[in-house]
């Protein structure tokens, strides 16, 4: 993230609002290595931050007005009154930043207004947390400008509340925490029950490997129902099993738990995914900590099969990435993020990257799918002030 980007966003702010911003902040998108749909089951996840960020130039106001502008949306400045912000009133992009302001105020923080200009390089609808990046960058800027003294995980909780209540998307806490708390060169092992965290060194280049993100260009949307249905199914499973959350079913008790679910076939599949996925996160952590990085490949492959067959949130494009990458020598591959489109990740030896990229791209062309976007993901810094 260069000084030049901060300058460009600050200059645009000045053109729009006729004054210098009080600061410029950045918050990244994320890719999740393992631990999918476990976050709203109080389970484990393991994301890392992408180099792609949402950047915000912000100035504080004291007159109860919020003005919002985005370089990525064709519309002018939106002006809102803070005392008129209300959940689910706004179905456009402004619900994300406005929702954060609403959540901060609802939590008792004295936000008195702001001018905000945003610009993001996080691909939207690609399962790479473009929404969380927008939320977190606004939260961090306001935290600084209004001296709120909130920690990264506290900002993440407020951003999740903004998305759940103001935007109306029933997401978990992973993406906001990843954007707020990830560190360069590390994956974040996060316990979503209490938000305890461990930074796990994750430097694939040093070991001659790469992690590719393949954006299938199939757009997904969390508010469109399927995500909510999975979440409701998991909650039903927890209720039937008499636990607070599926996190409370130990892997060793999985068979007994499945037997107790009787003929609830759909719930059984959801429960099986969550319980095995939590175990996979713990396996990946332990393999990385013992230096057996290549051995995480098969765990990623199992994770994909579980999301495809048990959780049923993959799609032909994601399956094609995984199957083609594995057939051309990848160490592991799986869909990442919410599913129903978005991106897959591919773990590969450095020397195989070009061949895998070519084969996947050709397979998409043969299948008549839109050309995927492939890039290397390197664990990058979490949210921070640039200026
Ligand atoms: C989306 C959600 F926003 C996250 O909370 C998480 O549930 C993820 O899908 C699936 O792991 O990114």
UniProtKB/TrEMBL annotation:
Binding site for Mg(2+): 131, 163
Catalytic activity entry: alpha-D-galactose + ATP = alpha-D-galactose 1-phosphate + ADP + H(+)
Residue stretches making up the Galactokinase N-terminal domain: 12-60
Domain GHMP kinase N-terminal: 96-181
Domain GHMP kinase C-terminal: 301-364
Record keywords: ATP-binding, Carbohydrate metabolism, Cytoplasm, Galactose metabolism, Kinase, Magnesium, Metal-binding, Nucleotide-binding, Transferase
Alphabetical list of Gene3D superfamilies matching this protein: 3.30.230.10, GHMP kinase, C-terminal domain
Pathway: Carbohydrate metabolism; galactose metabolism
EC number per UniProt: 2.7.1.6
Binding-site residues, substrate: 36-39, 227
Active-site annotation: 175 (proton acceptor)
Gene Ontology molecular functions: galactokinase activity
Cross-referenced InterPro entries: Galactokinase, Galactokinase_bac, Galactokinase_CS, GalKase_N, GHMP_kinase_C_dom, GHMP_kinase_C_sf, GHMP_kinase_N_dom, GHMP_knse_ATP-bd_CS
Binding-site positions, ATP: 70, 125-131
Family: Belongs to the GHMP kinase family. GalK subfamily.
NCBIfam families to which the protein is assigned, alphabetical: gal_kin
Name by which UniProt lists this protein: Galactokinase
Source organism (scientific name): Streptomyces tibetensis
Gene: galK
């Amino acid at each position: 993230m260069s000084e030049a980007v901060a300058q460009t966003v600050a200059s645009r702010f000045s053109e729009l609002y006729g004054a210098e911003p009080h600061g410029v902040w950045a918050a990244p998108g994320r890719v999740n290595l393992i631990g999918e749909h476990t976050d709203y089951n109080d389970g484990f996840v393991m994301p890392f931050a992408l180099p792609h960020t949402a950047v915000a130039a912000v100035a504080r106001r004291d007159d109860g007005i919020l003005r919002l502008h985005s370089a990525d949306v064709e519309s002018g400045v939106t002006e809102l009154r803070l005392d008129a912000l209300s959940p689910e009133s706004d179905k456009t992009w402004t619900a994300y930043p406005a929702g954060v302001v609403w959540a901060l105020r609802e939590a008792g923080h004295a936000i008195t207004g702001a001018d905000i200009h945003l610009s993001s390089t996080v691909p939207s609808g690609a399962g790479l947390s473009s929404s969380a990046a927008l939320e977190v960058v606004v939260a961090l800027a306001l935290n600084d400008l209004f001296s709120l003294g909130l920690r990264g995980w506290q900002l993440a909780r407020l951003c999740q509340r903004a998305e759940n209540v103001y935007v109306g998307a029933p997401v978990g806490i992973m993406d906001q925490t990843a954007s707020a708390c990830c560190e360069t060169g590390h994956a974040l092992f996060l316990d979503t029950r209490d938000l305890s965290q461990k930074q796990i060194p994750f430097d694939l280049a040093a070991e001659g490997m790469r992690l590719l993100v393949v954006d299938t260009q199939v757009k997904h949307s969390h508010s469109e129902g399927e995500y909510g249905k999975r979440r409701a199914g998991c909650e039903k499973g927890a209720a039937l099993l008499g636990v607070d959350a599926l996190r409370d079913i130990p892997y060793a008790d999985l068979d007994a738990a499945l037997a107790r679910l009787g003929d609830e076939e759909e719930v059984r599949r959801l429960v099986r995914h969550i319980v095995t996925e939590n175990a996979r996160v713990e396996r990946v952590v332990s393999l990385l900590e013992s230096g057996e990085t290549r051995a995480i490949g098969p765990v990623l492959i199992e994770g994909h099969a579980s999301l495809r067959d048990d959780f049923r949130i993959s799609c032909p494009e994601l399956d094609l990435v995984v199957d083609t990458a594995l057939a051309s020598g990848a160490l592991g591959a799986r869909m990442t993020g919410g599913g129903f489109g978005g991106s897959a990740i591919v773990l590969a030896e450095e020397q195989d990257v070009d061949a895998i990229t070519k084969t996947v791209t050709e397979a998409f062309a043969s299948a008549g799918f839109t050309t995927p976007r492939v890039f290397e993901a390197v664990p990058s810094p979490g949210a921070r002030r640039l200026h």
